[in-house]
Amino acid sequence: MDSFRLLLDGFATALTVQNLLYALLGVTLGTLVGVLPGIGPAMTVALLLPITFTVPPASAFIMFAGIYYGGMYGGSTTSILLNTPGESSSMITALEGNKMARRGRAAQALATAAIGSFVAGTIATALLVVAAPAVVDFAISFGPEDYFALAVLAFIMCSAVLSRSLVRGLASLGIGLAIGLVGIDQQTGQARLTLGIPQLLDGIDVVIIAVGLFAVGEALYVASRLRHASPDVVPVGRAWMGRADWSRSWRPWLRGTALGFPIGALPGGGAEIPTFLSYAVEKRLTRHKDEFGSGAIEGVAGPEAANNASAAGTLVPLLSLGLPTSATAAIMLAAFQQYGLQPGPQLFTHNPALVWGMVASLFVGNVMLLVLNLPLAPLWARLLRIPRPYLYAGIVFFAGLGCYAVNNSWVDLVILFVLGLLGFAMRRFGLPIAPAVIGVILGPMAEIQLRRALAIGAGDATVLVRSPIAAVLLTVAVLALLAPLLRRRISRDVPSEVRR
Question: Is 466 within a domain?
């Protein structure tokens, strides 16, 4: 009941004219970046960080949340019409959606993706209203050792899930942890990794890190592989669905929501796992098995619902514990730090208008996105023809301009482009960016909590496992670390005849 009252207060914040405009701007930008291949919500939020210093925090996060949800919506358009997922979570949609489009059913594919996203987003946001306060009540009892164990779990899970290789994920995490050490140690006052540069004594601004690794690095990577052939876009009319399409879609929408929300809330859960699971479930349950692989509408409806439900699930650990479980959530955590805010139990106590205004705006944004995506699908399809050189040159230009404006320092520009080259090299050699950003953001927090725990235990390291919560979290982290090795060992030991 208390959550319901707070949500009503949140609607009072979200429904002001100013915040409605920011929500509309966010969902429009999110849909735009979701449609354009190679530009995701994480890059967009990173690009906007430098220019939102003067925007009130509630308005900024309403816009960022709109970008996040809009990116999930827009990614389906690229997958269906171009067979090029704008986000990794849209890969499954491309399998069946583009086949539907090639069969002349692009309108139906876009409609089931948009309506399914609306249904899943609305239900998942309602679950967020219930789940986040419950997690906050649980997190109030956390001690320093529990927060350290939670950070370790986030490190391991994100490195394992957001990368094709655990080793590469951990390597990326190590890079992020090293960058997070730059600056003056808060306890000893010693300068660390500053290379004698005075501007580095305060550390590297997280905005510059996020923009450099995500935006500049991605722009350089795409430019290095740019081909000038025009994209083969399937023509589309107004999105619509017949009675048979509705009958085949509504159950996958609900099942996708049931998979997406809880998995998205797990550390390292992300959106990729529930979309793959949803596709597998729908393929097993459908009466139209012969259509899978050639354009089954269930293969679009379920994964798209799971994709959008996972976005709401991601906000549960982000808001209640301060733990990002996706790349976009990591950038949003950086945005909280930009405003001097730390997500967690205290955020709900000290800034309820911001938290509940942001949650309420998700309901409003879902309605806006449905209106934007159903009738305007042909317009979004035309955006796929924007020349890529103009697009990515603009990204690099605005990234440099925004980061220079943070401190009016040429050193920040040099750091930005050095980190951009690092981001390009990481992409080139298959190292994921998200674990590095999570290491930068959570590394200092994990270090502080580790020192506090050891101080309380008078240097006895067993204090880290005395708490039942910490012991369970560290055990799960170890299992997540060993799982790929065990899988490989079992696969090697089992004879090929048995595996077949």
Answer: yes
- Residues with Cβ within 8 Å of 4's Cβ and at least 6 positions away in sequence, in order, are 129
Count of positions (residues) in the chain: 500
Sequence-separated (6 or more) residues with CB below 8 Å from residue 328: 40, 41, 42, 45, 68, 71, 314
460 in a structural domain: yes
Alpha helices per DSSP H over 322-374 = 327-338, 345-350, 352-373
**Residue 449's domain spans which residues?**
2-487
Residue 326 lies in a domain: yes
pLDDT number for residue 363:
92
Model pTM score: 0.76
Cβ–Cβ under 8 Å, residues 157 and 267: yes
The pLDDT value recorded for residue 90 is 67
Regions in the chain scoring below 50 on pLDDT: 1, 493-500
H helix count then E strand count, the chain: 23, 2
Residue 448 lies in a domain: yes
Q: How far apart are CA 76 and CA 110, in angstroms?
A: 7
The per-residue pLDDT for 1 is: 47
CA distances from 424 to 88, 222, 223, 245 (A): 18, 9, 10, 43
Host H or E run for residue 184: strand 183-184
pLDDT tens per residue across span 268-289: 556 667 887 888 888 888 777 7
Q: Which three-class secondary structure state does DSSP give residue 52?
A: coil
Our count of domains for the chain comes to 1
Residue 206 CA to residue 360 CA, distance in Å, equals: 28
* Contact (CB, 8 A) for 324 and 332: yes
